Structure prediction request, 419 residues.
Amino acid sequence: MSYLKIVGKRPLAGEITVQGSKNAALPILAACLIGEGPCVIDNCPRIRDVEDTLFILNRLGVGTKRSKAAVSVDASELRNVSVCGLQAERIRSSVLFSGALLGRMGEAVFPLPGGCAIGSRPIDLHLEVMRALGAHISIEEGIIHANAKTLRGCRIRLRALSVGATENGILAAVCADGETVIENAAREPEVEELCRFLVLRGAKIFRSPDGALHIEGKQPLSPVRFSLQPDRIVAGTYLCAVACCGGRIRICNLPFQEMETPIGILRKMGMDVDQDGSVRAELPLKGIAHLATAPYPGFPTDLQPPLMAALCTADGQSRICETVFDNRLTIARQLRKMGAHIEIRENCAAIDGTACLHGGTVSAPDLRGGAALVCAALGAKGETVLGGYEYIARGYENICRDLKKLGADIHLTEGITDL
Ligand code: UD1
Prediction:
């Protein structure tokens, strides 16, 4: 097991450029299964979720080649319809292959997905979309079989907002006969990015003023080269890192527009964040009386744990309510080991910012929980030993490289430890 050693209380300084977006990369790589290839995806992050996705593509018979930050994907030899196997069970986005496979091959076999331990994460909405498009679905011993001779366009209203089910619906609908309308579709920037990629390839997709996505299926899709946007969650994590230990940095490619809500919250706490990516925090910052996570354009659930770390030492009482996932406040237990005063009641965390964080031995429970502990450790007195680096590597290309560039005392150690 690899672990991080972090010595805190050093204000950050310097400039970084953040990696390409994980949550855009995954559905776009799945979208490469459809139509003619090869497609080249630039700025594709070197993270474990992407490497697992490329592995799954290879197992399907899809050729992939990485050259620095560019990944080329050629699905012309696609021959397999099953995405079962270790990697598929490990990353939840393996479910995103189902819509694309169903559309292209008329069949998809995939496992009930894995992912972070942040809640029950059902896939009923994904299955509903596929059924609405005409697929027959059966589930046996944790394996899902979806079949459809032809997919037919339909009008479907998602019962709840879901990024993944919207993306899956789009991927299946571009292969369906006629028009599909997805009402109550998610509006996350990564959904928009998937649509931009498909439109560039020749798909007909537009969003009506009521937010519904209209997809005219069966348009021929051609190969393209496409560059991924910077990862707004990674950028947000580094903003939270500055909120934890203070300093003055610049994120050269800060996706400012897509981060209006989290930037608004950090500004309320007293941080300066400019459109050109300049960031400044003088500690202590102020707490936030009440904040609830919500689908875009609300406060992103993925930034809730890093923000919680920052609120542990922000003046006053703060309260965060998690409304997207049902088990995403567990990071409080690890933060308490570092001296944080956090009380959990149902889906809300009450944080008393009078705490002084100290180093300790903690373990990342999941991807963004791990990022939160890195932020907390940067603001804590003394050394923190942080296990579970494998979770962090799912979404951060090289958190050590980035934070070292900003002057942090952080090291990755490969080896076994009793965490
Ligand atoms: C995506 C992101 C993840 C982010 C999340 C919410 C990717 C690869 N991951 O995950 O980082 O935290 O959006 O912004 O893009 N739900 C159901 N039934 C379903 C599907 C979802 O009940 O069939 C529920 C989930 O349990 C959750 C809520 O809907 O409570 C939102 O989940 P969803 O938007 O689907 O998240 P993901 O697409 O998995």
Notes: The CA atoms of residues 334 and 362 lie 6 Å apart.
